[in-house]
Amino acid sequence: MGEWREGTVLVCGASSQIGCFLLPELARAGATVLALSRTAQPGVAGATWLLGALPRSPPAADVAASVCSFAPLDALARWIDASAAPRLERVVATGSMSAASKQASPVAAEREVSRRLREGEAALASACGRRGIAWTIFRPTLIYGAARDKSLTPLARRAMHWRVFGLPAGSGLRQPVHAADIATAVLCALGGGAEGRVLQIGGGERLTASAMFERVRASLPVRTLALRIPGALVRAGARALPPLRGPLTRLEQDLVADNTELERLLGVHPRNFRPDRACWGL
């Protein structure tokens, strides 16, 4: 891992689940933080909030030496190509493992998501290359921990409301990664050591989809009725319900990351999946 160099850091998508953990880490590291968001946000010590969204940027962002972005990669690439932030030296951004995992999805819309993610990665690398800007892109697996995700948190909250927890059968492996661990990886990448790399990042352990759902249920502060959904019913649902075909089909597929390069280059070791009620904002 390289040495942290103090300076102004622009965080795009600062109100995201990764951003909420990264902002205080940057402030503790001595950075001057500009936090960009579409909507007004409560104050965070050490950060100045800016209203806006890429590829448009407020003039104050021109002083940034580094950018951490959780916004769409193609918008970030267009912003850089527009010669924004003339002092910019380094970019650290996140995409998604969906760039790989949804590439062969039976659902056309999911294949399109995968294509756009991969094209966004390539566009960002090219834009940075033209300006001599160092870049690193992370591909996280399923993110949790800030109660802002659109997968496990809604599941947990519905179970809290109805006191019933659906447990579909699924032997495919999962590797949920805590948003705070991604924030740590982003901070480390700002210090150098992973330039020009697309790094996968998953949690510290792999477990079946069924086991993942069981741990979410066990983390709830109330008792819930376990509603077990056998594999035959899951497969029938995938055939009969086109909008759910993608996620139901993937219950039998491995959606994991290889953390080897992450650990070797940056020394980051994400935690195991041991959620508690705070992960779901309960």
Structural summary, described in words:
- The structure is a single chain.
- This protein is α/β, with parallel strands linked by helices and 282 residues long.
- The chain has one domain (8-149, 176-206, 256-280): Rossmann fold.
- The chain has helices at residues 19-28, 73-81, 98-101, 108-131, 152-162, 179-190, 209-219, 231-240, 245-249, 260-266; strands at residues 8-12, 32-37, 47-51, 66-69, 90-94, 134-140, 143-144, 164-168, 173-174, 177-178, 197-201, 207-208, 225-229.
- A 7-stranded parallel sheet has the order 3-2-1-4-5-6-11, with helices on both faces. It has a two-stranded parallel sheet with strand order 7-10. A two-stranded parallel sheet has the order 8-13.
- It is globular and about 55 Å long.
